Amino acid sequence: MDRQITQHRVYDVSPDDGARILVDRVWPRGLGKEDARLDAWLREVAPSDALRRWYGHDPGRYAQFRGRYLAELEDDAHREAAERLRALADAGPVTLLTATRDPAVSHTAVLAEWLTGDGG
């Protein structure tokens, strides 16, 4: 299936977003619930706290983070939320949202690959 997945910061809103899905474990600082314009918040699909702390958004660890996070997506703790995310992506365009400063080296990039089958 050809899924249309984009990713960006939750603070940015675009008319082309499709379903806006926050995939962070904690609510973004300084953002009101109404301002987020979310269709879903799938916190359970985010990396575990231990993995997130280990990674620390260090681009030098991204490749190893990616592998560990892909493994987490298949475990029982993530499976239900991951399948819900797949179902949302099957239904139409999806934008994965994060408060992370650089989504290109975050879990949203890994999720986008995983959802489209590009390297995951």
Automatic annotation (TrEMBL):
Domain of life, source organism: Bacteria
Source organism of this protein record: Streptomyces chilikensis
InterPro entries referenced in this protein's UniProt entry, alphabetically: YeaO-like
Lineage: Bacteria, Bacillati, Actinomycetota, Actinomycetes, Kitasatosporales
Protein known as: DUF488 family protein
